[in-house]
What does this fold into?
Amino acid sequence: MRQFFLVVLALALFSCSGNRQQTETAVATFELDNLLAVADQEVDKTVTVTGIVTHTCKHSGKKCFIVGESQAVSLQVFVDAEGEIEMFTPDLIGSKLAITGVFKEEHTSQEEIDEYEKSIKIMEEEGTSPEACATELASIKDMRQWMADHGKDYFVSYYMEGLKYEVLDN
It folds into this structure.
């Protein structure tokens, strides 16, 4: 009888631990540059991304920007109300973070890009900040090139709804 009880107890413990492992989902971890290489496969998934903070919102602290090792692209991270992050403080600038959150994408339509380009050209004609206008027009050109390269009639931007972060170094 005692052996029977031990077998049942062992099966129950094994069964419970097996269920726990099935319900816990592994979160993939990426360097920012690597995440962007597979971004379309990770949309709406919880991931951890590492990057260096280049900017935090001074007013609310509800967003920050991180760059990868190449520093060629950045990712905007928003504080998610469901997460553990209260705010991104300015002292995080320059720090490498591992941020866990839900990876998202936003589409900007061809029409929206056309309208934006018109408004920039009007500002340019008025002599408003020629350097800024040139930068924005170059960005629009890059968006159009990306759309042509990918056969899309919209441009994709990625961002993250941050749930928690860990400072990896300063």
